[in-house]
Amino acid sequence: MTFTTLEDVEKFYRNYAKAAGFSTRVRSTNRKGNKIKNQSITCSREGKWKSKIFPTEKTNPTASLNCPARIYIYTLKDVGAWIISKVVLDHSHPCCPSKAEMLKQHRKLSMSIRRTIENNEEAGIRPSKTYQSFVVAAGGRRELNFIENDVRNYITREVHSFDRNWNEFLLNFGLVDNKWLSDLYEDRHIWVPIYLDHNFWTGMRSTQRSESMHSFFNKFITQNSSLIQFVKKYDNCLRSREQAERESDAADFYTVIPCATKSSIEAQFQDMYTHQKFREVQAQLRGKANCITRLTNSALGYSVYEVGEQVSSSIFNKFVVTYDSVAADVKCQGLLFESRGILCRHALSVLSFEQVSQVSPRYILERWSKKVKRRHTHIKSSHNEPLLEPRSKRFDELVFRSQNVCEFASESKELTVILHRVYGTVMVEMKELKAKRKGTSSLSHEDANLESVNELQSPPRI
Fold first, then answer.
1. What average pLDDT score do residues 374-390 get?
2. Which part of the chain is the FAR1 domain (predicted)?
3. Which of 30, 210, 378, 384 is the most buried (most CB within 10 A)?
4. Residues 325 and 452 grouped into a single domain
């Protein structure tokens, strides 16, 4: 295939990638002086991630998966055209066209969007509100080719972590030396009543109502919101939750969190679990380094272990863990799996001691799997079909299309002149059509009145 410019080749392959369900990046470029001679464009999942430290502590997802898909292009010396010399179409990973719009390469902020973000930032409008205005104007999140994080990243607003807010809270109120708050912070990961550990709560806490529901709805409503406002905002809440789920699914599908250890059990969870749950598993695997396992009793494949966990320089917490090698069943006194569905560091320590390479399928819950089939996703949602008046709908469509035209025309003075000329011609044509229709509608209105009078005077017989 032959192209006029290098940009045309890159655009062609980028459009193909979006249709096929992946993204691209420039792998290598050879130059002669200031001119490019040839270039290699690959799938963005090309290459392999390698850790510079050991043990690996990286928990951010990586897309590198040694994907071979790529194209090679070079330029003809005499003609100046660009030719694709080699194409590799096979991928080392699945591609999903329906999720491609979530990839960073295929998300874009147009000039009008960027200007709106800048203006709203100067006016003190929060990024979430700015994004919601784009959603409403476009008629749904699926109509936008960017996500809320793109809006936040554009204005480079700093995200405050929990630790920073906690430290500021202690400093502002002079509570740095408060022992109770210090102990509370140290135990922040176990703010669950111990009596509920024997029940499966999927990680929910007793304070779920105040911490989760209130936090979620506070993005959309306030204590002064009326009932009518709540009903309207409730739809926005559902749309927001649906969009967050779509973004998480896309991240789980296209990226991989590297394993922190050489454990085959960790690799098993990496392949099955979503990023969020796999990070929890990795936290338990890292905590296993603080555990000392000792066999206390064993008979007929049933073993009892005492696992000591060092929580400070002089304090060890002891847990009793049982392992049935016949049933491949492991159970810890702490009941973390029974309450949250995640194997604890003590159970993992015993499995390592027993040289178990794969955990039983009963410890891999389908609800945490990235491949889970949710029944509700097959139900057609009405969130993306707002009820608008025909004129409002036409207006919104015209505004969005005109923004693209204006952005293209603003690139040069000549294009702007062409747009002004066409604009004047179109306005004259539309005014003439409107005037013509106005005269026709007046006659039609008179005819309708006459027909109505005649019908009243001589009603039709039934």
1. 55
2. 11-96
3. 384
4. no
